[in-house]
Amino acid sequence: MSSSSDPTFPFVKNLDIPAAWEDAAQRFLATDGLTMVLGGPDTGKSTLCQYLVYRSYVAGEPVGLVDLDLGQSHLGPPGTLGLGMFPPRFPGDRGLFPEGLYFIGQTSPVGALLEVAVGSRVLADQARAQGVNRLLVNTSGLVQGYAAHRLKQAEAELLQPHLLLGLDREGELNPLLHTLPQGQSTLLSLPVSVSARRRSFAERRRYREDRFRCYWEKSRPLDLSLSQVVWHGLPLGWGEPFSPADLDHWSKILGKQVLYGVAGDSRITLVMDQPPSCPHFLASQKHLHLLDCKTLEHHLAGLWDRSRHTLALGLLLPSPWRAGTIRIMTPWPASRSSEIKGISLGRLKMSLNGQEWPGSEFL
């Protein structure tokens, strides 16, 4: 059935709400704590979450929405996990700058299961720290295969949901639901809305590009001192940065200027402009990895504060590495650049108009 019209929130009249969803909404409103929504792609998870947020809001109950869908995110830009608080946001809001972000740097959770699981708990804790106890978690559409089971099991253990809502299309959730640690959770299996339709790969890509293009609209180049930030993750978050003397030493060995380097865990990573081709030497130096600075450019970057909260996204631009500076295109204000204490590079690579480019593996 269609939801009744609400002149304050006109989006509601366009929602198709099955009777079972209405029953789930009643259970959601009666449940304190965290509710997790599960379902495959294009089953209506975001629509259900939108409706539940609306029902909680008009009932006078604040709610936090955690969006774990990296590719088709409704809170924040793609490649991130997002947290929206209602209020101050209004139901139906799909803002690019929500109350909380957690950078992942790619549009699929596969290959980043640990980061997604940790980020889900970080954002849930952030909402609770702001005094909101009713939380709604919209999970990704990854529900089949080994990676899906690992991720959903980890999320369920970390978040300890009181209510699990599964949008089940033709029994596809049965294997996953059977293995989830339900504990004190109540599980409701719900039908997929008849209005839910499968979107093509091209539609999904256009959606991401539109979100990114809007996110970059007010971005500006920002120079960051490499002495100010700590790298997290691949390819440069392996250890301590080289001193100028270390850079000169390796420049002499390789016969070409080394722009930046880090060493740790029996691994040395050097950033160069067109690294030399010396296969015999490199074959004997298994611990040595050379990166062309141009391959790093236009990779999506996450900017972190001292407490490891994501402040904003950026794109790595051509940078004066040897001068100890990296240049980032970001909407984060230059007046607050001192708050940036960490940086991560994602696998996603793109132009400022949101067009995704082939990425590079940081090996």
TrEMBL record:
Keywords: ATP-binding, Kinase, Nucleotide-binding, Transferase. Pfam families: CLP1_P. One of its GO terms (molecular function) is polynucleotide 5'-hydroxyl-kinase activity. The keyword ATP-binding applies. It comes from the Bacteria. SUPFAM superfamilies: P-loop containing nucleoside triphosphate hydrolases. InterPro entries: Clp1/Grc3 (IPR045116), CLP1_P (IPR032319), P-loop_NTPase (IPR027417). GO terms for biological process: RNA processing. Residues 39-217 form the Clp1 P-loop domain. Coiled coil: none annotated. This is Clp1 P-loop domain-containing protein.
